[in-house]
Amino acid sequence: MKSLGFEDFRKLLLKKRAMLLKSDENIDKDLKRDIEGRHGDDVDIAESSYEQEMAYLFKSRGKDELRLIDEAIKRIDQGEYGTCAECEGKIAKKRLIVQPYSILCIHCQEEMEKLQAKENLA
Ligand SMILES: [Zn+2]
Q1: Which residues neighbour ligand 1 (ion) by CB within 5 Å?
Q2: pTM
Q3: Residue 1: pLDDT band with limits 50, 70, 90
Q4: Which of 57, 85, 110, 120 has the fewest Cβ atoms within 10 Å of its own Cβ atom?
Q5: CATH number of 6-121
Q6: pLDDT tens digits for 69-95?
Q7: Could you tell me the residue ranges of all domains in the chain?
Q8: What is the CB-side half-sphere exposure of residue 112 using CA atoms within 13 A?
């Protein structure tokens, strides 16, 4: 099997990026329909605002992902892709295949998540 190079990952990232942008559009359409279709009793309104909240949540997560993808593409351009942004260690290719926009090695990612979890508790 030919090993994956930067260009393969760039293609993967661009594809994922296009998919995210597309789902973003769909969410916008859903939200618009939801707002336009708003009438009826309080229960309906409560339910639809819950759905909207979830859609917004999904949307902001999608934005985060887009930001990460852009960052990863930048790193490909700079020839730094596959190198951890934190400790400059190598990021396992297996990890990049599952999550092509990883810019941290598994170790630094875990440290980051621990920190974030702490911040969320504070
Ligand atoms: Zn690292």
Answers
A1: 84, 86-87, 89, 105, 108
A2: 0.69
A3: very low
A4: 120
A5: 1.20.120.910
A6: 999 999 999 999 999 999 999 999 999
A7: 6-121
A8: 12
